[in-house]
Fold this protein.
Amino acid sequence: MASFNVELNNKEVKFQDSQNNPDGSIKNGSGEYNLFLRITVNRKHARVKLNYAVQKKHFNPDAKEYKYIRGSHPKHKIINQHIDNKIQEAKDVITMLENKKHVVTANTIKAEMMKPASATFLGFATNLATSIKENNQVATYKKYNTVIQKLSDFRKGEDFYFEEMTPSFLASLEANFKKQGNSINTINSNFRTIRAIFYKAIEKGLADQNRNPFFTYKLKLNNSVKERLNEGEIQEIEDLDLKGDTIVESIRDAFLFSFYNAGIRISDILQLTWDNVKDGKLIYKMHKTNRIHSFKLKEKPLLILEKYRGKDKTYIFPFFSSRYSYSDPVFLHSQIGSKTAIFNKYLKYIASRAGITKKLTTHIARHSFADIARQKTDNIYNLSKTLGHSSLKVTEAYLSSFDEKAVDDTLDSVFKY
Protein backbone atom coordinates (compact mmCIF):
# COMPACT_ATOMS: atom_id res chain seq x y z
CA MET A 1 0.00 0.00 0.00
CA ALA A 2 1.40 3.36 -1.02
CA SER A 3 1.25 6.50 1.08
CA PHE A 4 1.93 10.11 0.16
CA ASN A 5 3.25 13.10 1.97
CA VAL A 6 4.59 16.53 1.08
CA GLU A 7 7.81 17.93 2.48
CA LEU A 8 10.13 20.87 2.03
CA ASN A 9 13.59 20.48 0.64
CA ASN A 10 16.28 21.15 3.24
CA LYS A 11 18.16 23.54 0.95
CA GLU A 12 16.98 27.07 0.41
CA VAL A 13 16.25 28.12 -3.16
CA LYS A 14 18.90 30.55 -4.39
CA PHE A 15 18.16 33.69 -6.36
CA GLN A 16 18.95 33.63 -10.07
CA ASP A 17 21.18 36.67 -9.42
CA SER A 18 22.57 37.87 -6.12
CA GLN A 19 20.49 40.66 -4.54
CA ASN A 20 21.22 43.38 -1.96
CA ASN A 21 19.87 43.31 1.59
CA PRO A 22 18.59 46.62 3.05
CA ASP A 23 21.89 47.01 4.89
CA GLY A 24 23.83 46.71 1.61
CA SER A 25 25.08 43.17 2.14
CA ILE A 26 24.64 40.50 -0.55
CA LYS A 27 21.91 37.89 -0.14
CA ASN A 28 21.77 34.69 -2.17
CA GLY A 29 18.86 32.89 -0.52
CA SER A 30 15.24 33.49 -1.41
CA GLY A 31 13.80 32.32 1.90
CA GLU A 32 11.82 29.67 -0.01
CA TYR A 33 12.19 25.90 -0.17
CA ASN A 34 11.13 23.54 -2.97
CA LEU A 35 8.14 21.29 -2.35
CA PHE A 36 8.54 17.54 -2.86
CA LEU A 37 5.95 14.77 -2.97
CA ARG A 38 7.24 11.82 -0.97
CA ILE A 39 5.98 8.43 -2.13
CA THR A 40 6.30 5.52 0.28
CA VAL A 41 5.83 1.83 -0.60
CA ASN A 42 6.88 -0.87 1.87
CA ARG A 43 8.84 1.70 3.86
CA LYS A 44 10.90 2.66 0.78
CA HIS A 45 10.75 6.28 -0.32
CA ALA A 46 11.03 8.20 -3.57
CA ARG A 47 10.61 11.93 -4.00
CA VAL A 48 9.14 13.88 -6.93
CA LYS A 49 9.87 17.59 -7.16
CA LEU A 50 6.75 19.76 -7.41
CA ASN A 51 6.44 23.01 -9.32
CA TYR A 52 6.43 25.37 -6.38
CA ALA A 53 8.64 26.67 -3.57
CA VAL A 54 7.33 28.36 -0.39
CA GLN A 55 8.64 29.88 2.80
CA LYS A 56 8.56 27.69 5.92
CA LYS A 57 5.94 29.88 7.59
CA HIS A 58 3.45 29.03 4.80
CA PHE A 59 4.01 25.26 4.98
CA ASN A 60 1.93 22.93 7.20
CA PRO A 61 3.69 19.53 7.50
CA ASP A 62 0.75 18.02 9.44
CA ALA A 63 -1.93 19.02 6.97
CA LYS A 64 -5.24 17.24 6.65
CA GLU A 65 -6.87 16.63 3.26
CA TYR A 66 -3.62 17.72 1.58
CA LYS A 67 -3.94 21.36 2.65
CA TYR A 68 -0.18 21.70 3.01
CA ILE A 69 -0.02 25.40 2.14
CA ARG A 70 -1.53 27.72 4.71
CA GLY A 71 -4.12 30.32 3.79
CA SER A 72 -1.57 33.03 4.48
CA HIS A 73 0.12 32.24 1.14
CA PRO A 74 -1.43 34.27 -1.73
CA LYS A 75 -1.44 31.19 -4.00
CA HIS A 76 -2.42 28.61 -1.41
CA LYS A 77 -5.44 27.37 -3.40
CA ILE A 78 -3.43 26.90 -6.61
CA ILE A 79 -0.54 25.13 -4.91
CA ASN A 80 -2.78 22.86 -2.84
CA GLN A 81 -4.68 21.92 -6.00
CA HIS A 82 -1.37 21.13 -7.70
CA ILE A 83 -0.40 18.87 -4.80
CA ASP A 84 -3.78 17.14 -4.94
CA ASN A 85 -3.39 16.60 -8.72
CA LYS A 86 0.07 15.11 -8.29
CA ILE A 87 -1.10 12.68 -5.64
CA GLN A 88 -3.96 11.62 -7.89
CA GLU A 89 -1.49 11.18 -10.77
CA ALA A 90 0.61 8.89 -8.55
CA LYS A 91 -2.48 6.84 -7.69
CA ASP A 92 -3.35 6.52 -11.40
CA VAL A 93 0.19 5.32 -12.09
CA ILE A 94 -0.22 2.62 -9.43
CA THR A 95 -3.42 1.42 -11.10
CA MET A 96 -1.69 1.35 -14.48
CA LEU A 97 1.27 -0.63 -13.12
CA GLU A 98 -1.02 -3.13 -11.42
CA ASN A 99 -3.07 -3.60 -14.59
CA LYS A 100 0.12 -4.37 -16.50
CA LYS A 101 1.22 -6.72 -13.71
CA HIS A 102 4.35 -4.63 -13.12
CA VAL A 103 6.04 -4.40 -9.74
CA VAL A 104 4.80 -1.38 -7.77
CA THR A 105 7.57 0.35 -5.84
CA ALA A 106 8.18 3.95 -4.89
CA ASN A 107 10.80 4.17 -7.65
CA THR A 108 8.62 2.64 -10.40
CA ILE A 109 5.85 5.11 -9.51
CA LYS A 110 8.34 7.99 -9.69
CA ALA A 111 9.80 6.73 -12.99
CA GLU A 112 6.37 6.72 -14.64
CA MET A 113 5.54 10.17 -13.27
CA MET A 114 8.85 11.58 -14.53
CA LYS A 115 8.39 10.36 -18.10
CA PRO A 116 8.21 13.20 -20.65
CA ALA A 117 4.72 14.30 -21.61
CA SER A 118 3.25 12.77 -24.75
CA ALA A 119 5.05 14.05 -27.82
CA THR A 120 3.47 14.63 -31.19
CA PHE A 121 4.63 12.40 -34.03
CA LEU A 122 5.10 15.07 -36.71
CA GLY A 123 6.81 17.45 -34.28
CA PHE A 124 9.26 14.78 -33.18
CA ALA A 125 9.80 13.55 -36.77
CA THR A 126 10.50 17.09 -38.01
CA ASN A 127 13.12 17.65 -35.29
CA LEU A 128 14.66 14.27 -36.06
CA ALA A 129 14.82 15.08 -39.78
CA THR A 130 16.49 18.41 -39.00
CA SER A 131 19.20 16.69 -36.96
CA ILE A 132 19.72 14.20 -39.80
CA LYS A 133 20.16 17.09 -42.23
CA GLU A 134 22.65 18.76 -39.88
CA ASN A 135 24.67 15.51 -39.98
CA ASN A 136 24.86 15.91 -43.79
CA GLN A 137 22.74 12.78 -44.43
CA VAL A 138 20.94 14.46 -47.32
CA ALA A 139 19.35 11.36 -48.90
CA THR A 140 17.99 10.15 -45.55
CA TYR A 141 16.73 13.66 -44.75
CA LYS A 142 14.82 13.81 -48.04
CA LYS A 143 13.30 10.39 -47.37
CA TYR A 144 12.15 11.48 -43.91
CA ASN A 145 10.88 14.80 -45.24
CA THR A 146 8.81 13.04 -47.91
CA VAL A 147 7.16 10.79 -45.32
CA ILE A 148 6.49 13.75 -42.99
CA GLN A 149 4.78 15.61 -45.85
CA LYS A 150 2.68 12.56 -46.75
CA LEU A 151 1.57 12.13 -43.15
CA SER A 152 0.79 15.84 -42.87
CA ASP A 153 -1.35 15.63 -46.03
CA PHE A 154 -3.11 12.54 -44.67
CA ARG A 155 -3.91 14.42 -41.45
CA LYS A 156 -4.79 17.62 -43.33
CA GLY A 157 -2.01 19.47 -41.53
CA GLU A 158 -3.03 18.32 -38.04
CA ASP A 159 -0.37 16.75 -35.83
CA PHE A 160 -1.07 13.67 -33.69
CA TYR A 161 0.30 11.87 -30.65
CA PHE A 162 2.26 8.62 -30.75
CA GLU A 163 -0.58 6.98 -28.82
CA GLU A 164 -2.86 7.63 -31.80
CA MET A 165 -0.69 5.57 -34.14
CA THR A 166 -2.56 2.28 -33.86
CA PRO A 167 -2.89 -0.65 -36.30
CA SER A 168 -6.19 0.83 -37.54
CA PHE A 169 -4.43 4.19 -38.07
CA LEU A 170 -1.76 2.45 -40.18
CA ALA A 171 -4.41 0.55 -42.16
CA SER A 172 -6.13 3.84 -43.02
CA LEU A 173 -2.79 5.37 -43.94
CA GLU A 174 -1.93 2.45 -46.24
CA ALA A 175 -5.33 2.74 -47.95
CA ASN A 176 -4.72 6.47 -48.44
CA PHE A 177 -1.28 5.87 -49.94
CA LYS A 178 -2.76 3.32 -52.37
CA LYS A 179 -5.47 5.79 -53.33
CA GLN A 180 -2.73 8.33 -54.12
CA GLY A 181 -1.24 5.84 -56.60
CA ASN A 182 1.76 4.69 -54.56
CA SER A 183 3.03 1.17 -55.32
CA ILE A 184 3.14 -1.40 -52.52
CA ASN A 185 6.95 -1.21 -52.50
CA THR A 186 6.86 2.59 -52.15
CA ILE A 187 4.33 2.27 -49.34
CA ASN A 188 6.51 -0.33 -47.67
CA SER A 189 9.51 2.00 -47.87
CA ASN A 190 7.46 4.84 -46.36
CA PHE A 191 6.25 2.61 -43.54
CA ARG A 192 9.80 1.49 -42.75
CA THR A 193 10.69 5.16 -42.29
CA ILE A 194 7.64 5.70 -40.07
CA ARG A 195 8.64 2.64 -38.04
CA ALA A 196 12.21 3.97 -37.68
CA ILE A 197 10.83 7.27 -36.34
CA PHE A 198 8.56 5.40 -33.90
CA TYR A 199 11.46 3.26 -32.64
CA LYS A 200 13.63 6.34 -32.19
CA ALA A 201 10.84 7.86 -30.08
CA ILE A 202 10.77 4.69 -27.96
CA GLU A 203 14.52 5.09 -27.36
CA LYS A 204 13.89 8.68 -26.20
CA GLY A 205 11.08 7.58 -23.88
CA LEU A 206 8.46 9.48 -25.92
CA ALA A 207 6.55 6.44 -27.14
CA ASP A 208 5.44 3.29 -25.34
CA GLN A 209 7.04 0.04 -26.52
CA ASN A 210 3.98 -1.86 -25.28
CA ARG A 211 1.78 0.16 -27.65
CA ASN A 212 3.98 -0.36 -30.70
CA PRO A 213 1.56 -0.83 -33.64
CA PHE A 214 4.23 -2.52 -35.75
CA PHE A 215 4.08 -5.58 -33.50
CA THR A 216 0.84 -6.58 -35.20
CA TYR A 217 0.61 -4.48 -38.37
CA LYS A 218 2.59 -5.91 -41.27
CA LEU A 219 2.99 -4.82 -44.86
CA LYS A 220 3.46 -7.18 -47.75
CA LEU A 221 6.32 -6.43 -50.10
CA ASN A 222 6.11 -7.21 -53.79
CA ASN A 223 8.95 -9.54 -54.72
CA SER A 224 10.25 -7.51 -57.65
CA VAL A 225 12.93 -9.32 -59.63
CA LYS A 226 16.25 -7.51 -59.80
CA GLU A 227 17.26 -7.17 -63.42
CA ARG A 228 20.78 -8.39 -64.11
CA LEU A 229 23.05 -9.43 -66.96
CA ASN A 230 24.77 -12.74 -67.58
CA GLU A 231 28.43 -13.05 -68.51
CA GLY A 232 27.62 -13.22 -72.22
CA GLU A 233 25.74 -9.92 -72.09
CA ILE A 234 28.57 -8.31 -70.14
CA GLN A 235 30.93 -9.43 -72.90
CA GLU A 236 28.62 -7.95 -75.56
CA ILE A 237 28.85 -4.56 -73.86
CA GLU A 238 32.61 -4.89 -73.52
CA ASP A 239 33.02 -5.71 -77.22
CA LEU A 240 31.09 -2.65 -78.45
CA ASP A 241 33.08 -0.29 -80.67
CA LEU A 242 32.24 3.12 -79.21
CA LYS A 243 35.27 5.08 -80.33
CA GLY A 244 34.37 8.59 -81.40
CA ASP A 245 31.54 8.84 -78.87
CA THR A 246 33.43 9.97 -75.78
CA ILE A 247 30.49 10.27 -73.35
CA VAL A 248 28.98 6.89 -74.24
CA GLU A 249 32.39 5.19 -74.14
CA SER A 250 33.17 6.67 -70.71
CA ILE A 251 29.82 5.53 -69.34
CA ARG A 252 30.35 2.04 -70.75
CA ASP A 253 33.81 1.88 -69.18
CA ALA A 254 32.55 3.12 -65.82
CA PHE A 255 29.76 0.51 -65.90
CA LEU A 256 32.27 -2.27 -66.59
CA PHE A 257 34.66 -0.93 -63.96
CA SER A 258 31.79 -1.15 -61.48
CA PHE A 259 30.94 -4.72 -62.50
CA TYR A 260 34.53 -5.96 -62.34
CA ASN A 261 34.97 -4.39 -58.91
CA ALA A 262 32.06 -6.07 -57.11
CA GLY A 263 29.40 -3.69 -58.36
CA ILE A 264 30.61 -0.34 -57.04
CA ARG A 265 27.62 1.98 -56.64
CA ILE A 266 27.26 4.91 -59.02
CA SER A 267 27.64 7.38 -56.10
CA ASP A 268 31.12 5.94 -55.53
CA ILE A 269 32.09 5.59 -59.20
CA LEU A 270 31.49 9.31 -59.70
CA GLN A 271 33.67 10.27 -56.74
CA LEU A 272 36.60 7.90 -57.33
CA THR A 273 39.92 9.73 -57.46
CA TRP A 274 43.42 8.60 -58.32
CA ASP A 275 44.21 8.76 -54.60
CA ASN A 276 41.86 5.78 -54.19
CA VAL A 277 44.26 3.61 -56.22
CA LYS A 278 47.23 2.40 -54.18
CA ASP A 279 49.61 -0.48 -54.82
CA GLY A 280 47.25 -2.29 -57.17
CA LYS A 281 44.29 -1.92 -54.82
CA LEU A 282 41.17 0.23 -54.84
CA ILE A 283 40.51 1.77 -51.40
CA TYR A 284 37.58 4.12 -50.94
CA LYS A 285 34.87 5.18 -48.46
CA MET A 286 31.41 4.07 -49.57
CA HIS A 287 29.10 7.06 -49.91
CA LYS A 288 26.03 5.14 -48.72
CA THR A 289 27.50 3.68 -45.52
CA ASN A 290 30.68 5.72 -44.84
CA ARG A 291 32.53 2.42 -44.45
CA ILE A 292 35.99 1.88 -45.98
CA HIS A 293 36.00 -0.74 -48.76
CA SER A 294 39.17 -2.21 -50.22
CA PHE A 295 40.01 -4.89 -52.76
CA LYS A 296 42.66 -5.96 -55.24
CA LEU A 297 42.27 -4.69 -58.81
CA LYS A 298 42.11 -7.44 -61.42
CA GLU A 299 43.34 -7.31 -65.02
CA LYS A 300 40.30 -5.80 -66.76
CA PRO A 301 39.72 -2.89 -64.35
CA LEU A 302 43.48 -2.17 -64.42
CA LEU A 303 43.26 -1.86 -68.22
CA ILE A 304 40.34 0.57 -67.85
CA LEU A 305 42.37 2.67 -65.41
CA GLU A 306 45.29 2.86 -67.85
CA LYS A 307 42.88 4.19 -70.47
CA TYR A 308 42.01 7.20 -68.27
CA ARG A 309 45.31 7.77 -66.49
CA GLY A 310 46.65 11.30 -67.03
CA LYS A 311 43.37 12.74 -68.33
CA ASP A 312 42.44 14.34 -64.99
CA LYS A 313 44.62 14.90 -61.95
CA THR A 314 41.82 14.23 -59.49
CA TYR A 315 38.90 12.11 -60.74
CA ILE A 316 39.33 8.78 -62.51
CA PHE A 317 36.26 9.11 -64.72
CA PRO A 318 35.32 12.39 -66.48
CA PHE A 319 31.97 13.03 -64.78
CA PHE A 320 32.95 15.20 -61.82
CA SER A 321 35.20 18.20 -62.45
CA SER A 322 38.25 19.29 -60.46
CA ARG A 323 37.08 22.88 -60.95
CA TYR A 324 34.19 22.40 -58.51
CA SER A 325 34.03 21.64 -54.83
CA TYR A 326 31.66 18.86 -53.80
CA SER A 327 32.07 19.46 -50.07
CA ASP A 328 28.51 20.77 -49.72
CA PRO A 329 26.44 17.59 -49.15
CA VAL A 330 23.31 19.12 -50.72
CA PHE A 331 25.22 20.06 -53.89
CA LEU A 332 26.91 16.64 -53.95
CA HIS A 333 23.56 14.89 -53.62
CA SER A 334 22.06 16.87 -56.51
CA GLN A 335 25.12 16.21 -58.70
CA ILE A 336 24.97 12.46 -58.04
CA GLY A 337 21.28 12.50 -58.97
CA SER A 338 21.76 14.44 -62.20
CA LYS A 339 24.79 12.39 -63.31
CA THR A 340 22.94 9.14 -62.55
CA ALA A 341 20.07 10.27 -64.79
CA ILE A 342 22.55 10.92 -67.62
CA PHE A 343 24.17 7.51 -67.03
CA ASN A 344 20.84 5.69 -67.23
CA LYS A 345 19.89 7.54 -70.42
CA TYR A 346 23.06 6.42 -72.21
CA LEU A 347 23.02 2.91 -70.72
CA LYS A 348 19.68 2.43 -72.45
CA TYR A 349 21.39 3.33 -75.72
CA ILE A 350 24.32 1.02 -74.94
CA ALA A 351 21.91 -1.86 -74.28
CA SER A 352 20.22 -1.34 -77.65
CA ARG A 353 23.61 -1.26 -79.40
CA ALA A 354 24.53 -4.55 -77.72
CA GLY A 355 21.20 -6.16 -78.59
CA ILE A 356 20.17 -6.40 -74.93
CA THR A 357 16.44 -6.02 -74.25
CA LYS A 358 16.77 -5.71 -70.47
CA LYS A 359 16.40 -2.27 -68.92
CA LEU A 360 20.00 -1.29 -68.24
CA THR A 361 20.69 1.06 -65.29
CA THR A 362 23.70 1.91 -63.15
CA HIS A 363 22.68 -0.51 -60.39
CA ILE A 364 22.48 -3.49 -62.74
CA ALA A 365 26.28 -3.73 -62.64
CA ARG A 366 25.95 -4.51 -58.92
CA HIS A 367 23.04 -6.92 -59.43
CA SER A 368 24.90 -8.70 -62.20
CA PHE A 369 28.08 -9.13 -60.18
CA ALA A 370 26.12 -10.44 -57.17
CA ASP A 371 24.18 -12.97 -59.23
CA ILE A 372 27.20 -14.26 -61.18
CA ALA A 373 29.35 -14.37 -58.03
CA ARG A 374 26.85 -16.35 -56.01
CA GLN A 375 26.65 -18.95 -58.80
CA LYS A 376 30.41 -19.39 -58.59
CA THR A 377 30.87 -19.45 -54.83
CA ASP A 378 29.04 -21.00 -51.91
CA ASN A 379 30.79 -18.76 -49.37
CA ILE A 380 28.13 -16.17 -48.59
CA TYR A 381 30.30 -14.58 -45.90
CA ASN A 382 33.02 -13.74 -48.44
CA LEU A 383 30.42 -12.52 -50.91
CA SER A 384 28.88 -10.31 -48.23
CA LYS A 385 32.26 -8.71 -47.52
CA THR A 386 32.95 -8.27 -51.23
CA LEU A 387 29.67 -6.44 -51.70
CA GLY A 388 30.46 -4.26 -48.71
CA HIS A 389 27.36 -5.27 -46.77
CA SER A 390 27.18 -4.71 -43.02
CA SER A 391 25.87 -8.21 -42.26
CA LEU A 392 25.00 -11.59 -43.75
CA LYS A 393 21.32 -10.77 -43.22
CA VAL A 394 21.62 -7.83 -45.60
CA THR A 395 23.31 -10.05 -48.21
CA GLU A 396 20.66 -12.76 -47.90
CA ALA A 397 17.90 -10.20 -48.39
CA TYR A 398 19.76 -8.69 -51.35
CA LEU A 399 20.18 -12.08 -53.04
CA SER A 400 16.64 -13.27 -52.32
CA SER A 401 15.28 -11.94 -55.61
CA PHE A 402 17.78 -14.09 -57.54
CA ASP A 403 16.37 -17.30 -56.06
CA GLU A 404 14.45 -18.51 -59.09
CA LYS A 405 17.67 -19.91 -60.60
CA ALA A 406 18.40 -21.73 -57.36
CA VAL A 407 14.95 -23.27 -57.60
CA ASP A 408 15.52 -24.27 -61.23
CA ASP A 409 18.91 -25.79 -60.41
CA THR A 410 17.38 -27.81 -57.59
CA LEU A 411 14.65 -29.17 -59.84
CA ASP A 412 17.24 -30.06 -62.48
CA SER A 413 19.31 -31.97 -59.92
CA VAL A 414 16.26 -33.80 -58.52
CA PHE A 415 14.69 -34.79 -61.83
CA LYS A 416 17.72 -35.97 -63.81
CA TYR A 417 16.76 -38.54 -66.43
